[in-house]
Structure prediction request, 168 residues.
Amino acid sequence: MLFRPNRQMTFASFESRPGSVHARSAAGWFASCRGTFCCEHILILAGRKGAGKTHLLHATANLVRSNESIHGAITISAGRLAEEVQRAIEYDDLPCWSRRFASEDFLAVDDVDDLFCRVEVADFLLEVLRLRLDSRRRTLLSATLTTAQDLSCPLNTFLNRQTAVRLI
Prediction:
């Protein structure tokens, strides 16, 4: 099963507002693996609903996919990830899915904070993120990262220790 970015969401079509210029620049550097963000393996696009996080996530994934040295890239929403994890649990092949998501060259997950209250899926993603960090694979996430979220969620704790750029 292929999880590809929306091809219409590109850097050219991204409406850059004053509060999103830094995030757009960071995402571009992250995609090209140059400059300040070359050393980062996880980057979080954070901001309120409607700030452009999803568009920027897809634009970045499209730019990464255009790189000939990238052999595997997954772009998936948190909702779709939850469906896939539930199906994997049902068919008892969760370790296979963990390996699949952990081994792709690039992973982009939209709205990860939607998973904080879904313990099995949040734990799955946390395991995948740790495996990806260990193997130095780049991961792009989007989240609102508001302070109202449940702070006892291990995924939230992990995300709060990662590099985030805000879209205002």
Observations:
- The first strand starts at residue 42 and ends at 47.
- The CA atoms of residues 116 and 152 lie 9 Å apart.
- The beta strands are 42-47, 73-77, 106-110, 138-143, 163-167.
